[in-house]
Design goal:
Elements: H1 6-10, E1 13-20, E2 26-33, E3 44-49, E4 55-57, E5 65-70, E6 76-81, E7 90-95, E8 100-103, E9 113-116, E10 122-128, H2 133-140, E11 155-161, E12 166-168, E13 177-183, E14 190-195, E15 208-212, E16 219-224, E17 230-237, E18 240-248, E19 257-263, E20 268-271, E21 279-284, E22 291-296, E23 299-306, E24 309-316, E25 320-325, E26 331-336, E27 344-349, E28 355-356, E29 372-378, E30 384-390, E31 402-408, H3 428-432, E32 437-442, H4 451-455, H5 464-478, E33 482-492, H6 494-505, E34 511-515, H7 521-527, H8 531-538, E35 567-572, H9 581-592, E36 597-602, H10 612-630
Parallel strand pairs: 31-32, 31-33, 33-34, 34-35, 35-36
Antiparallel strand pairs: 1-2, 2-3, 3-4, 5-6, 6-7, 7-8, 9-10, 10-11, 11-12, 13-14, 14-15, 15-16, 17-18, 18-19, 19-20, 21-22, 22-23, 23-24, 25-26, 26-27, 27-28, 29-30, 30-32
Helix pairs in contact: 7-8
């Protein structure tokens, strides 16, 4: 019998960004490896027939290829590829009739995104400025001092004239950073989302919408957006055109998302998803009413945004991602999986069912997996909660109690959906193969239960969300599934914070894993790339006056003297989201107090670990770490 190995996990190839042709007959998707060998991630473009699911690879060069876009007649495919100059993507065109691929741009800075316009001769681009001779000379002369705020590189709107083969840059938006483009379905103006800066700490709070007419070059400003606006979509209404987007629900920076509806004619904006107990994740334009994906507890709901609000069309188990649709909105495609099958491309009508048309990981067929089941329980204050339980491979609940590892998700605005829990980072099925039961909780602060549920942790991280998790663990102990003497806890990013927080509150855990975890909220607000969002979670910043500050009371570092649990600390050396200094701080504190721990730094890695050998090390090292403490019953 084939068993699950670390190599099988990290050598996965996963489909991404499916795009349906306008006529609905073909679909293009990107096939990408889960891990990287070398300096570049090599991806491929594949076509699949929507009727018979026959697939074929349509690009053959070794390159990073992404963002496929269809022509209106469904006969031509445009995409980005760095085949000519690795790391510098350019727009390419694939003619299906003869398989010819033609490079259309040679922009020095590379192209970030592209959008085919109603005018068949025009393609809108998002690209940074090309290097100038002066900047090249400065680089050669080592005159490369960085003055923050000066000469900041912004992505700008550019127009590619296909007939002339020329790229021009309209002088618009006062040099603001262009984030996203969407043309009105009738071929009218472009909606353009910009920010004041590309800085993640500042830019998402400065969003503005504009209209740009590619024929005349004229611009109309529509005003500011809510924070972290994305996923633009147009639709016609009785009062004229509407423009929508997904963004954070005000007033706090850590909150659930909502769909915001701007009436272009009336210049009024309203929240179209207020009060719902689910959270919008994607908004997709059609020729009529747009479609919205909602995280709905452990599952996903597909809706249409009608004048009276979202109308539910179908519900699907687990998680749906990367929604694509034909212009009529009658056929959709998404990435979806099951409890025991990885995500693949699925196609079908809006109302379902959806049919799987790719099989990207046949190597997993026949490999035994742990039984996964949804959990529903109530928090100490009566709040309804959910999560998942994965049992050891080949075991049932009656075989317990088992050593239990609780893995807390990141975000905190994320969730566990009822899908296959097998990833390069420590995940439920990887540990279930080694004899562990795994608890995957969805405490408050996460996605899938509406705005209030998500916003409740702002300034209170580690408080109620911690008791939510503890209540679930106690429930599993009471049911005879978890052995109270063999408990472990793990997590990455915000989950890493929760793991570090947990072992400062209790000695119940015999082993912990803290991966890219938050140790000091004030330090993170000062140095992380999302500083103001972290300040909202921690409740204050270091410049909030003379301390002690609110964030001190919710930072694991403040409780380091209470920690006795052995800790494995993992961190990427180049992490800008949660900088390495967080892990160094924790390591020094644990060393000071004589706590058993292991500190591992992965060179060249950011917030996520990408290199194959590093992913293998993460999987093997973490399982070995829990094996040391949890596989033997205490006497």
């Amino acid at each position: 019998m084939t068993v699950l190995t670390a190599e099988l996990v990290v050598d996965a190839r996963v489909p991404q960004t499916p795009v349906l042709a306008p006529d609905g007959r073909l679909l293009c998707y990107v096939l990408a490896p889960a891990s990287r060998i070398g300096d570049h991630l090599d991806t491929e473009l594949w076509l699949v027939d929507a009727d018979d699911a026959a697939s074929r690879r349509v690009t053959t060069d070794t390159a990073a290829e992404s963002q496929p876009r269809w022509s209106v007649d469904s006969q031509t495919l445009f995409f980005l590829s760095d085949r000519a100059d690795r790391g510098t993507p350019q727009v390419h065109r694939l003619t299906l009739a003869d398989g010819t691929v033609t490079a259309l741009t040679s922009w020095g800075a590379g192209v970030i995104d592209h959008l085919l316009l109603a005018d068949a001769n025009l393609v809108a681009l998002i690209a940074e400025d090309e290097p100038t001779e002066q900047s090249a000379r400065r680089d050669r002369d080592r005159d490369d001092a960085i003055v923050v705020g000066e000469h900041e590189s912004h992505a700008r709107l550019r127009l590619l004239d296909l007939s002339a083969g020329r790229v021009t840059t309209p002088d618009v938006f006062d040099g603001r950073h262009v984030v996203e483009l969407r043309q009105r379905p009738d071929g009218g103006p472009l909606a353009v989302l910009t920010q004041a800066s590309a800085d993640n700490d500042y830019g998402p709070r400065t969003g503005q919408l504009h209209l740009f007419d590619p024929a005349t070059g004229t611009v109309e400003d529509l005003g500011p957006t809510e924070v972290e606006a994305r996923s633009l979509a147009w639709w016609p209404g009785e009062d004229g055109w509407h423009l929508g987007y997904v963004a954070l629900t005000p007033p706090v920076l850590q909150a659930g998302t909502a769909v915001f509806d701007l009436s272009v004619e009336n210049q009024t904006t309203r929240n179209r998803t207020a009060g719902l107990s689910m959270c919008p994740t994607e908004l997709r334009q059609t020729n009529a009413a747009p479609l919205v994906l909602f995280a709905d507890g452990l599952n996903t709901t597909v809706t249409r945004l009608d004048p009276t609000g979202p109308t539910a069309l179908s519900q699907h188990p687990g998680r749906l991602d990367d929604l694509t649709t034909t212009p009529t909105g009658e056929t959709i495609a998404v990435l979806a999986g099951t409890r025991y099958q990885p995500a693949n491309v699925h196609i079908g009508p809006l109302t379902g069912p959806l049919r799987k048309v790719t099989d990207s990981r046949p190597e997993l067929d026949g490999i035994p997996l742990g039984t996964q089941q949804p959990l529903a329980y109530r928090a100490a204050d009566g709040l309804d909660l959910d999560g998942l339980l994965v049992l050891p491979v080949g075991k049932t609940a009656s075989d317990g109690p088992f050593p239990l590892v609780t893995i807390v998700h990141g975000g905190p605005y994320d969730r566990y959906a009822d899908r296959l829990q097998l990833f390069w980072f420590p995940s439920a099925q990887w540990l279930a193969t080694a004899g562990y039961a795994v608890f995957l909780p969805n405490p408050r602060g996460g996605q899938g239960h509406g705005h209030e549920f998500a916003a409740s942790v702002a300034g209170r991280v580690g408080r109620e969300e911690w008791t939510d998790i503890l209540t679930g663990i106690d429930l599993l102990i009471a049911e005879g599934i978890a052995d109270p003497d063999r408990l472990g806890i793990a997590g990455g990013s915000h989950g890493g914070f929760m793991a570090a927080w947990a072992i400062g509150q209790t000695d119940r855990f015999r082993a912990a894993l803290v991966s890219a975890g938050v140790i000091d909220w004030g330090m993170l607000a000062a140095t992380g790339e999302n500083g103001q969002f972290e300040a909202a979670l921690g409740g204050s910043t270091g410049w909030s006056g003379i301390g002690p500050h609110p964030h001190d009371a919710v930072s694991p570092i403040s409780f380091a003297s209470r920690i006795h649990t052995p800790v494995l600390i993992l961190h990427g050396a180049e992490d800008t989201n949660v900088p390495l200094g967080q892990a160094v701080y924790f390591h020094r504190a644990l060393r000071h107090f004589g706590v058993e721990h292991e500190f591992v730094v992965y060179p060249r890695e950011g917030h996520s670990i990408r290199e194959r050998n590093h992913q293998l090390d993460v999987l093997r090292r973490t399982r070995a770490w829990f094996d040391r403490s949890l596989q033997r019953r205490s006497r």
